[in-house]
Amino acid sequence: MSARRAFPKTYLLMSVLRFHILTLMDSNQPDLDLVFFAMADGTRRAVLQKLGEGPASVSDLSEPFDMALPPFMKHIKMLEKAKLITTRKVGRVRTCELNPDTYADLENWLHEQRRQWDSRYQKLDALLTQMKGASE
Amino acid sequence: MKPDLQNSFVADMQKSQITVRREFDAPKDMVWECYTKSDLLDRWFAPEPFTAQTKSMDFRPGGHWLFAMVSPDGDKHWSRFDYETIDPKDGFTAQDAFSDEDGNINRDMPVSTWEVTFDDRSSRTLVQIVTTYDSPEAVDQVVQMGMEEGIKATLAQLERLLKTMS
Q1: Residue numbers in B near A112 (CB within 8 A)
Q2: Shared domain check, B144 and B103
Q3: Which family does it belong to (chain B) (predicted)?
Q4: DSSP reduced 3-state for A32
Q5: For the segment A11-29, what is each residue's pLDDT rounded down to a tens digit?
Q6: Closest of B14, B2, B8 to residue B133, by C-alpha
Q7: Is B26 at the interface with chain A, CB within 8 A?
Q8: Are both B58 and B98 inside the same structural domain?
Q9: Lowest-confidence region among A44-53, A74-83, B48-57, B154-163
Q10: Does residue B119 sit in the same domain as residue B145?
Q11: Which ipTM score applies to this complex?
């Protein structure tokens, strides 16, 4: 869904915070110490912010940092271990993406908006049928 | 709803915008009335399990519609629509805000702008509603509010269930 792309940074950070709280409530919680440890580092936070604009390859993500690839990969692995991102490798390119669970509440809200419109419009269909019957 | 009627819901979070397009098997005059007359709006505008209840309606540019969404246990959630432009039978624009029962707008809550257009499709009518929020932060605020409402509704349901069990 396009809603996953190009989130503004404030939105992303709020989502990540909420993700922490939700994981606390979840019985199947990832290690929270790991999440906080992952978030404590400036490079990793910058990577998360960049991923707020959409999925990106490891080499694109590493570009702004004056860092060799192996230490940068350690940061990526840390974020993945904390379940803040997911990665997949196609050929020689590894692409990173924010963990979609982070966006669960926005998607739930959109789902509820859609349900509300469906519900309203079913009532409107019935009303129009009744009005048409009365005018005939 | 007839299966061939057009029906779409598209969210563009970059623009903080939701677009709902829906075709109705009725002439445009009739559909227009349903969107602009309060006695008709009261019969469909609230999604299940709510009902809509109008307190006052003044459908003209600068006028407003004050109404409540009434929950099954009688709780009233007040809103007001302030009409900005009206192009009879073709469309209107309005601002949707949360208010109290006297129509005082709650400025702590985000306002959204509605652009509603009506299109003739022979014996049918296509209605498009574009809802736009001021900013992504405003969307985030209503999402959060929706979550709180959802949690409250779940707890209320749980309470009812527990009562039937005891």
Answers
A1: 146, 150
A2: no
A3: Belongs to the AHA1 family.
A4: helix
A5: 555 555 555 555 544 545 5
A6: B14
A7: yes
A8: yes
A9: B154-163
A10: no
A11: 0.86
